Amino acid sequence: MLIIPAIDLRNGKCVRLLQGRADAETVFSDDPISVAKRWEAGGAELIHVVDLDGAFTGEPRNFEVIRNMIEAINVPIEVGGGIRSMDTIVKFFEIGVSRVILGTAAIEDQKLLEEAYNTYGEKIVVGIDAKDGMVAVKGWVKKTGVTAVDLGCDLRTIGIKEIIFTDVKRDGTLIGPNLASIEEMAEKTGLKVIASGGISSLKDIEDLKALETKGVYGVIIGKALYTNAFTLERAIAISKGLGED
Length: 245
What we know:
This protein is an alpha/beta fold. 38% of the residues lie in helices and 27% in strands. It contains eleven helices and twelve strands.
């Protein structure tokens, strides 16, 4: 199972939000580049970067920070947050982003999603963010009337093979992932699932690893790493079945 450390950017800083709330921010570093280097040194095979300013405003605002991050490390970076046009998608790929994540656009602009996927294939990943089982968009502020599972099934019909599935109410809480919802998403949609939200312990990683046969192949970890609940190195060892020692 792939362990993916997260870097959330707001005003050029590395932050974490509680349940995606803009008014519940903790700044962990003024230097996101050093954080990226830390995750690279810890063995990360992929880094998950979210432009929170972009998610809230609809247009990425931390482009130069992301460009500098790509130039500073050799680990592939996936980016999401406010990516709602082909011009923006192209711009990110031009600076070396490995994968682009579409969230709001995936539910509000299917034409864009299909164009992006037809152009870039599996370099396009869809982020499904859910509150109480319903899809949330526009920086998790707006809850739609579409269930997360239904969206996942619709995405598969147009060719999408992989999603990032986040339980918004658990994100940044350190209360553990919503295992039942993650398993349901993987089983009912047949999609490859990267789980996100609430990871708090190595036990959580073990529990998610047990869902690999269902289609859960990765996990994004944020606050638990920043608060030193465990190390990235230890998490990777668990994911590879090497145990805690």
